[in-house]
Amino acid sequence: MSDLTHLNTRGEAHMVDIGEKQATHRMAIAEGRIVMEASTREALLAGNLAKGDALATARIAGIMAAKRTAEVIPLCHPLPLSHLDVELTALDEPMAMHCQVRAETRGATGVEMEALNGVQAALLTVYDMCKALDRGMRIEGVQLVHKSGGRSGEWNR
Amino acid sequence: MSDLTHLNTRGEAHMVDIGEKQATHRMAIAEGRIVMEASTREALLAGNLAKGDALATARIAGIMAAKRTAEVIPLCHPLPLSHLDVELTALDEPMAMHCQVRAETRGATGVEMEALNGVQAALLTVYDMCKALDRGMRIEGVQLVHKSGGRSGEWNR
Amino acid sequence: MSDLTHLNTRGEAHMVDIGEKQATHRMAIAEGRIVMEASTREALLAGNLAKGDALATARIAGIMAAKRTAEVIPLCHPLPLSHLDVELTALDEPMAMHCQVRAETRGATGVEMEALNGVQAALLTVYDMCKALDRGMRIEGVQLVHKSGGRSGEWNR
Amino acid sequence: MSDLTHLNTRGEAHMVDIGEKQATHRMAIAEGRIVMEASTREALLAGNLAKGDALATARIAGIMAAKRTAEVIPLCHPLPLSHLDVELTALDEPMAMHCQVRAETRGATGVEMEALNGVQAALLTVYDMCKALDRGMRIEGVQLVHKSGGRSGEWNR
Amino acid sequence: MSDLTHLNTRGEAHMVDIGEKQATHRMAIAEGRIVMEASTREALLAGNLAKGDALATARIAGIMAAKRTAEVIPLCHPLPLSHLDVELTALDEPMAMHCQVRAETRGATGVEMEALNGVQAALLTVYDMCKALDRGMRIEGVQLVHKSGGRSGEWNR
Amino acid sequence: MSDLTHLNTRGEAHMVDIGEKQATHRMAIAEGRIVMEASTREALLAGNLAKGDALATARIAGIMAAKRTAEVIPLCHPLPLSHLDVELTALDEPMAMHCQVRAETRGATGVEMEALNGVQAALLTVYDMCKALDRGMRIEGVQLVHKSGGRSGEWNR
């Protein structure tokens, strides 16, 4: 038998039974960053100046992806997010855009997958917007920062 | 006006016109890794031994996500992949699972977004499978490795 | 700061926090119409006579779209509809097909977006069915008619 | 038999055979507007000032919906858009936001459904953003403006 | 190594390379049936009499599912259907509804998966419509009937 | 009026009102099989030996499809599965692969559609993996085995 909860007693992938878990308030915060050339970031922020669409596009991508996490991650339970917020900020060391996503629900399982998936979609959208300038951008440090609610309690990095 | 191709002359996000581009053979290879505790990786590989479902789940997630990239990345053109391959291998320094995705199409625009999205989905699925053991896993180094086809020619990291 | 609930305190789009809202019975009714040539409507109704597929297709489109509203409207919360009904009727002044959708749920947020999205999908499907006859059809008067449940109480046009 | 191309010889809904049609450049422009209180529009435009997210959200919704039109409209053929542009502008008579979408492809069937669906999604997203202020907004005049390419040639309103 | 084309040389699932295959006209016909009590079928056909919605719903489900086959079948290539037709007829021995789907495309790979998936979705929709009357219905004989186009040529059952 | 619950009093398809139903624990088990040549099954099981991907792909397809059942079956209510398990076993009489899916939720409506849809997707994925060897495979006996929870109580085949 396996230590992996996502394998059943036959060693096969399954969607874990959460039927007995309590519906409680759950929250997760995840983050990540996309490292880029200084000139790329300058172009991104300048392009954003006109109407704000460059960063808004990435935020919207993060929000929409987070809602559909269970369609992408095979063994992830569907759950209705009650709150989602995506924040993109410029980082200087290294030259990067940083993304933080906060997800909340009232349900029987946690929302860390939704938060992480939102981060990845937002950062990859930044890559898409800038890729004609700089194909070498790199997504780094995608990780959970905080998690609360449910039996396992609070977790902080 | 902006240097970002994804903003139109009004500074607004749009889906770039590729109507004049040639339909040629296009290929992209992307990679990334998820860094984890030694004990987590041991459990993952042990759990995989029984039926192979642990890594297969991640590979399938990568393939299925790559096909739907244009649903997730707002300004990405839909295109029919002609080939997709996801490879997951164990890395020791640092202790990690490495993912490489190779995507191909015959079309008017490149497939780097599909390759990168496949990498992210596969790695996030590994996170999902192992998260009960180790919430601190970290996705790193998601980047393009190679790109060929189209007017911009070949690109290698 | 903004009067728009869908912008957070930084002025950025986010999915509003509904975690504290009560799960109550919610209902919304929306309507709209598609204005067309008399001859187009005659063909639509005649075509429908054979097996009923013309109007059934539009009703099904409205139902299926309403269920997926949160995939289309970026900041809309996903919610499980408990009831949905789409009604299409002929209107004579102006010559049109009228659509009314009634949506219900038991949840923490309203269902007006689902009702409106159902109306739009049903009417656009009518457009699709008839467009070879009449490209000039026009969708008009898509609006909320009634809303009840939740803290804001009942609203009627 | 029916005049409706979307019913087969048995009177049943089907997806029309376009196998013999030429793959040519196709373009469609559609428009519509959402009529609102002056104070609502003022709040929308003021809220947009901060970061631009209010209108960007609607533009992105229009783009993403247009790409997925064939998932919503039952008998619509899937086709890969080569270009999509969504424009939102303020109208004063009546007080409204106007939306215009231009869609292009190189394919065997037209893109008017994609353009119209993009208009509807963008306008409904504006409704969603403003609905806490004004439930009485109304979507009007959703219609095709221009269509070119294919055997049926150019069409202008 | 494996005889299964869907496993790569490492024995891992992948999406087969079809980049070298010719884009030709491809067609597939698939069928299946749902066996039910005589009284159930009577109720289905009687319910259909009113507006035709019962069978139309199943036909539409088959069409819409066929278009999205590559989202459901992990290693199936996305391809744009150029024609799709779903036919439902009453069978008496055994008492059943029979479904036949004909799918066509012009592309580099066959459409049998689309035809089969359309059959399954239409039959399962019949199950859904009748299940309150008869939970014991059974789907049988889902199979390919005909396939043409491409290097492997014509195949008939 | 009709005996079909999915037709409203006007004889039109609608999504039944489940607003008054109790949220209770619901479970359903469904099964089916795909009949194939002995040599095909041998190749499938041999191909599975290497890394297990052949059967894992089918299991994952079943799980992911079950979660999205309400997108495929037009009048099916969306509901969040709390548990899903897909089992594939070899049958000898007739030579086949057998699939059993067990689905559970805590909600206001049953999960038999999810279980049946999971069976169909898993079996069709087996078809896809083996179709280059054997186009004549046949899906048989897709049916409900057990259902419990809700007002209608327990049902067993």
UniProtKB/TrEMBL annotation, chains A, B, C, D, E, F:
Uppermost EC category: lyase
MF-aspect GO terms: cyclic pyranopterin monophosphate synthase activity
Residue stretches spanning the membrane: none
Coiled coil: none
Limits of the Molybdopterin cofactor biosynthesis C (MoaC) domain: 15-150
Catalytic residues (positions): 128
CDD domains (alphabetical): MoaC_PE
Catalytic activity, as annotated: (8S)-3',8-cyclo-7,8-dihydroguanosine 5'-triphosphate = cyclic pyranopterin phosphate + diphosphate
UniProt binding sites for substrate: 75-77, 113-114
Pathway where it operates: Cofactor biosynthesis; molybdopterin biosynthesis
Stored Pfam families: MoaC (PF01967)
UniProt keywords, alphabetically: Lyase, Molybdenum cofactor biosynthesis
EC number in record: 4.6.1.17
Function as written in the Swiss-Prot or TrEMBL entry: Catalyzes the conversion of (8S)-3',8-cyclo-7,8-dihydroguanosine 5'-triphosphate to cyclic pyranopterin monophosphate (cPMP).
Annotated family: Belongs to the MoaC family.
Subunit: Homohexamer; trimer of dimers.
Protein name according to UniProt: Cyclic pyranopterin monophosphate synthase
Annotated source species: Spiribacter pallidus
This protein's encoding gene: moaC
